[in-house]
Amino acid sequence: MAEVLQAKDADEWAYRGEGAVNLVLSYCGTSPKFVGKVLRIQKVSNKVSKYENGHSALTKDERVLWGQFEGIVAARTREIAEQLYVQKVMCPLLGSEHVDAGIRILVSREFLKAVENKVLLQRPTLRVDAAKVNPLCDSVLVIADHSIFPSGILKEDFCLSVEIKPKGGFLPTSDFIDEENAVKKRITRFKMHQALKLHDGVISKISKYDPLDLFSGSKDGVQNAIKCLFLTPQNNFRVFLNGSLIFGGMDGGAAECVSYTVDQAFQDGIKRVIVAKDGMHSKYFLELVTETVMKSGLLNQLLEVQKLDSIDIEGAIHAYYDFVSLPCMVCRKKGENKFSGRYSSIHSMSKDEKLKLVRNYLISATGKDLSMMISFRPRKSMDVESPHRSVLLKEINQTFDYKASFIDLDMKPLKKMEYYYELDQQIVSCYVQMVKDDEAIQNGVVGIDGSLNSYIAKWK
Ligand SMILES: O=P(O)(O)O[C@@H]1[C@@H](OP(=O)(O)O)[C@H](OP(=O)(O)O)[C@H](O)[C@H](OP(=O)(O)O)[C@H]1OP(=O)(O)O
Ligand SMILES: Nc1ncnc2c1ncn2[C@@H]1O[C@H](COP(=O)(O)OP(=O)(O)OP(=O)(O)O)[C@@H](O)[C@H]1O
Ligand SMILES: [Zn+2]
């Protein structure tokens, strides 16, 4: 009979982290089956949400959308479909050596309850208020722990790992972008979204990070991006030592660091791995991350996936309405005729072409939201063969094994398309308003909206 995790097993799992929809636990027991693994447990919103990740299977339209991928249509639950999505859709695109789709394991309700109680005090308040462990889950995912090297490491070894959530790394060029929204072709969504997040109080400071730098392929660009992530990590940058968080936060908001003289835990942590003169460890740490990001080539692959969004949400939304057989709310609002107006080239496409546009948009959305984890351990001797790739930091003559993986490759629900459109419009209008207010201030005119003025100050 298949193993089912019970309440007593909760003792062997410890809080690792969480995002908006999953709680992640690391294994601290001795069973070879779980050593080097994490458990990824689905959460459910405390508020009733339109986009709730419930226990239901895929919708009829989603089954058509993902039908060409083996097994997804027949999946009994959304969790099973999501695991197959990682295996069949994302793995081939990102490389199976960088992705672990994991295996599902059965859990009892008592296990979920025990785990939830155990980690409650370690969870950020914002996350506790937002969501709880989904009590209806009967299975959870067991995935490789990407913050450590696979088993076989000695106890005294140290492994440093870095988690980066790069977000969208290119500017859209789609002809379907409204003239009013032309700013989208010049400013990244990440940067514009920062203005909205600040306005809504989600963050207290604008990130210095620019995804275009990270994806630039140039050493200077990547170096600058990593430095900015370090200065304003928000939910885009974290560092772990042997799986314990030593830099950044899990609250999805504004974990902020203002200088290289950060937390002692971080300083102590990097000293265990990087051999350098006092005061130089942070510099070489950032150098190591930069070199490895460049060398791994992971971002080139990721950018290709993100670029599957070829016509932007302002184009894809029209394909969506036809695909789900609903009147196009965007054409209706804009007073456009579906078959002769600005978006007629989309509305008159074949069913298959529209399906492909929507599917590619959603795959790209996964690519714009995933994270990558890169783990490092110092190579003790170049004579010993290692199955891992390595990077040499010339200035300190130190070689590191590294392992790079992608995490959080979740399938985005089809019904989120309308939300994506609305959010996109909101992001642009908030940013445009901010720029207008900024100009008004510079011209000596008092801004229209006091709250906007206050975040312009924070922008600078
Ligand atoms: O829309 P975005 O860019 O804010 O992305 C959301 C993320 O926000 P952030 O990266 O902080 O801006 C958001 O992350 P946080 O909860 O803010 O850490 C989620 O990753 C969300 O995806 P899902 O609902 O969990 O499937 C993400 O939603 P998707 O757009 O990827 O569906
Ligand atoms: N395989 C893994 N190995 C090591 N750490 C992991 C792994 N998977 C997740 N984590 C840690 O747990 C955190 C939450 O996981 P994950 O990003 O999958 O949650 P999520 O709720 O799906 O996120 P999001 O809000 O982006 O949708 C990650 O940020 C990472 O720190
Ligand atoms: Zn339309």
TrEMBL record:
This protein's UniProt keywords: ATP-binding, Kinase, Nucleotide-binding, Transferase
Organism: Erythranthe guttata
Example of a GO MF term: ATP binding
Keyword Kinase applies: yes
GO annotation terms (biological process): inositol phosphate biosynthetic process
Record-linked PANTHER family: INOSITOL POLYPHOSPHATE KINASE 1, INOSITOL-PENTAKISPHOSPHATE 2-KINASE
EC category: transferase
UniProt xrefs under Gene3D superfamilies: Inositol-pentakisphosphate 2-kinase, N-lobe (3.30.200.110)
UniProt-listed Enzyme Commission number(s): 2.7.1.158
GO terms under cellular component: nucleus
Function of the protein: Phosphorylates Ins(1,3,4,5,6)P5 at position 2 to form Ins(1,2,3,4,5,6)P6 (InsP6 or phytate).
Domain remark from Swiss-Prot or TrEMBL: The EXKPK motif is conserved in inositol-pentakisphosphate 2-kinases of both family 1 and 2.
InterPro entries hit by this protein: Ins_P5_2-kin, IP5_2-K_N_lobe
Reaction it catalyzes: 1D-myo-inositol 1,3,4,5,6-pentakisphosphate + ATP = 1D-myo-inositol hexakisphosphate + ADP + H(+)
Official protein name in the record: Inositol-pentakisphosphate 2-kinase
